[in-house]
């Protein structure tokens, strides 16, 4: 393993998520969802029972510190995905955190945001939350970074979930290929995405992303479903493409 590349990637993840304040819009309510083995934090606005619900699934968050060691709290320091979700103009919007983020959950374990971040237990828990919160509505599922892989696993594991569109942003779509590409330790306790879900989808990849290199995404995603965002990094430069994220139709 290339130790220096490993530490570099972790430092990128650490510094790209520098802490900042964010104002939660008044129309969003905070709640904790009891979902199998975990309690999951979410913010939601639901104002139209007939409209699709846009569900945003967070990335891996603050999984490692600046020295490359697992943290005790994976709550993201950055606000990239929350800002996108909180500005979504649709009637029904939910920002869903990953296990261990934002909540003091006695069941959480460092494996949940390191080698087992995509374990069956994690997939089952977040699937329960998505099914409960969607309540049979049409779903636009949006996954950021590691949340992209998790959202794909959820779609494949839940054929009755009415997903009308799947969107990924700077997404890891196959952790085996990702760790091999960057010469990182394998995620030995995690499930992998054997195939892309058979739903309408669009994948936004940053041209300058050092954490999820665009050539990796290109090797997995069909060209017609991929948008390479010029000059975008892992969590900047996507602003002009928010209309695609916010749309339920195209």
Detailed description of the structure:
Strand 7, helix 6 and strand 8 form a beta-alpha-beta unit. Helix 3 (120-134) packs across helix 4. The protein has helices at residues 3-15, 80-86, 120-134, 146-157, 175-181, 214-218, 242-246; strands spanning 29-35, 38-46, 53-57, 92-96, 139-144, 163-169, 201-206, 226-229. The longest helix has 15 residues, at 120-134. The protein has an eight-stranded mixed sheet with strand order 1-2-4-3-5-6-7-8, sandwiched between helices. It is α/β, with parallel strands linked by helices and 250 residues long. The chain has seven helices and eight strands.
Largest sheet strand order: 1-2-4-3-5-6-7-8
How many H/I helical runs?
Answer: 7
Ranges where pLDDT stays below 50 over 5 or more residues in a row are 1-8, 10-19
Mind summarizing the main beta sheet?
A: 8 strands, mixed
- Summarize model confidence as the mean pLDDT: 91
* Radius of gyration from the alpha-carbon trace, in angstroms: 17 Å
Which structural category fits the helices and strands? alpha/beta
| Residues in helix, % | 25-40%
Fraction in beta strands: 15-25%
Shape: globular
Report how far the terminal alpha carbons are from each other: 41 Å
Query: What oligomeric assembly is this protein in?
Result: single chain
H/E element order: HEEEHEHEHEHEHEH
**Beta strands, count:** 8
């Amino acid at each position: 393993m290339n130790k220096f590349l490993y530490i570099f990637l972790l430092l990128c993840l650490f510094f790209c998520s520098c802490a900042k304040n964010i104002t939660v819009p008044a129309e969003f309510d905070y709640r904790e969802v009891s979902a199998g083995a975990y309690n999951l934090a979410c913010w939601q606005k639901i104002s139209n029972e007939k409209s699709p619900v846009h569900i945003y699934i967070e990335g891996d968050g603050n999984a490692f510190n600046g020295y490359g060691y697992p943290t005790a709290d994976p709550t993201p320091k950055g606000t990239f995905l929350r800002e996108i979700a909180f500005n979504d103009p649709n009637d029904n919007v939910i920002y869903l955190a990953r296990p261990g983020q934002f909540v003091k959950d006695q069941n959480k374990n460092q494996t949940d945001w390191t080698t087992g971040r995509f374990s069956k237990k994690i997939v089952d828990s977040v699937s329960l939350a998505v099914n409960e919160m969607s309540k049979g509505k049409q779903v636009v599922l949006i996954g950021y970074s590691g949340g992209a892989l998790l959202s794909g696993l959820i779609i494949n594991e839940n054929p009755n979930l009415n997903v009308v569109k799947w969107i990924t942003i700077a997404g890891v779509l196959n952790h085996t290929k990702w760790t091999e590409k960057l010469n990182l330790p394998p995620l030995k306790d995690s499930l992998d995405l054997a195939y892309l879900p058979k739903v309408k989808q669009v994948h936004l990849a940053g041209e300058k992303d050092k954490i999820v290199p665009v050539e990796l995404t290109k090797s997995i995603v069909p060209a017609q479903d991929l948008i390479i965002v010029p000059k975008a990094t892992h969590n900047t430069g996507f602003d002009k493409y928010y209309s695609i994220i916010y749309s339920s139709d195209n």
